[in-house]
Specification:
golgi apparatus; GTPase activation; 443 residues; FAD/NAD(P)-binding domain; Guanine Nucleotide Dissociation Inhibitor, domain 2; Guanine Nucleotide Dissociation Inhibitor, domain 1; alpha/beta; seven-stranded mixed beta sheet; 24% strand; GDP_dissociation_inhibitor
Amino acid sequence: MDEEYDAIVLGTGLKECILSGMLSVSGKKVLHIDRNKYYGGESASICPLEELFSKFGAPAPDESYGRGRDWNVDLIPKFLMANGQLVKLLIHTGVTRYLEFKSVEGSYVYKGGKISKVPVDQKEALASDLMGMFEKRRFRNFLIYVQDFQEQDPRTWKDFDPNTSNMQGLYEKFGLDKNTQDFTGHALALYRDDEYLEQPAIQTIRRIKLYSDSLARYGKSPYLYPMYGLGELPQGFARLSAIYGGTYMLDKPIDEIVLGEAGRVVGVKSGNEIAKCKQVYCDPSYVPDRVRKKGKVIRCICLMDHPIANTKDALSTQIIIPQKQVGRNSDIYVSMVSYTHQVAAKGWFIAMVSTTVETDNPEVEIKPGLELLGTIRQKFVSISDYYEPTDDGLQSQIFISQSYDATTHFETTCLDVLDIFKRGTGEEFDFSKIKHELGDEEQ
């Protein structure tokens, strides 16, 4: 370990593995270390099934669950937006060579105690049971506006400047009611709260366009999920980093991040060895003194032998319960995958219900999500602290990711990764450069 590295990455959570791949591809000399023997950190996939039961202190599963080896259960499942940042990253960095994806069959939103398909085009708007007849027409006009909108062509803005006017103003321009605003902001634009209403409308327009562009690629929903679960993603980025000269060490304890003059990082100590470096990238668990607790997230993994009712027997789906529908300040997320993704034995389904904790009784908070699932054969509840770094890392050159939030999609994860990359390198990640460098034979 006597070489000097541009960057040392600590932890093999998904964010750290993506960063390691991006840094390696950008020409940095990277050493990637994890104290665990496995990839994934807190976002790992658990296999076999017996290991999941034992992790949560439950008696071993009976034989009705099939072979334990047929299960790959993600502790923090998240869907990828088909046209989103992470898929672009996977394609541009060549990681798709190691992974196979399957589209998620349904995307639903909760209103008044039942779920409805998220309407994303004019036809679906008119057929949706989320709105009355006149509201459908108004929403249809709103969707046409968003679809025709082009940032470079102010004529498509229709006397509304989305850069200076807020989203609330755009909703009002089309006369959309609070209920329609609710599912548009939370199930289409995927915001976690209503602060976006006061922000420039351009941001929400981009998000809705991303949703509809992603949907257009595969048809049933805008989401994708990797075969064999998310555990394949960190390993894919690890391979990518290795191709570009990155070095990996698992099962390596980290004793200290060594600081030099002016509190700047100079290396990482493990036992008697010190690896020298200019920067460190890590998850919050490696630097407890440099993060603050922002809140808690509750997640409930549910094993079921049937699909979710009212989803046309979809073998995979996402349901968003907007906060206002259940008198909360945070949305509740439900995701479900199944044996078709090679993550469960034949005929079995894995659902996850998650939200940001707001009370002293978190399990009651996820009840609306659990009630949608029907009979649950086995559930595992975990409550984790949500951490964020206390500074931007520029002085110490230690760049820390945030904990994983309650969302069941990857958009917030990607924003965090791209933000860390920019802070660490001083520049935006150049997607185009990578594709060019990989050459035709590598794409």
